[in-house]
């Protein structure tokens, strides 16, 4: 239950100048990096700080990144294997993730 409360309070920030999406978790930064080409975002890398791994933060980060992409009107290509795996778990991302 406590973990769900923590997850509800997390937000993704789009740092366009740094070509990444970030999420602050207990003072640590998790991120999804991308390259922008031909109007598409190529999601190249995801990282969760070592001490936060295995707790669901990576999935949360990627799904919230997908939500932000939807809000901003981007289509994306999942290059990172973890991002691909998260995208495949739910058909709702098929419209924006290749």
Automatic annotation (TrEMBL):
InterPro entries: Acyl_CoA_acyltransferase (IPR016181), Gcn5-rel_NAT (IPR045057), GNAT_YJDJ (IPR031165). Residues 13-98 form the N-acetyltransferase domain. SUPFAM superfamilies: Acyl-CoA N-acyltransferases (Nat). Pfam families: Acetyltransf_CG. This is N-acetyltransferase domain-containing protein. It comes from Arenibacter troitsensis. The lineage of its organism: Bacteria, Pseudomonadati, Bacteroidota, Flavobacteriia, Flavobacteriales.
């Amino acid at each position: 239950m406590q973990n769900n409360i923590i997850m509800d309070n997390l937000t993704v920030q789009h740092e366009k100048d740094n070509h990444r999406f970030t999420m602050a978790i207990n003072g640590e930064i998790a991120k999804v990096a991308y390259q922008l080409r031909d109007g598409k975002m190529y999601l190249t890398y995801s990282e969760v700080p070592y001490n936060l791994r295995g707790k669901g933060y990576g999935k949360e980060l990627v799904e919230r990144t997908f939500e932000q992409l939807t809000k901003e009107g981007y289509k994306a290509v999942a290059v990172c294997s973890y991002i691909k795996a998260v995208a495949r778990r739910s058909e709702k991302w098929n419209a924006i993730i290749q």
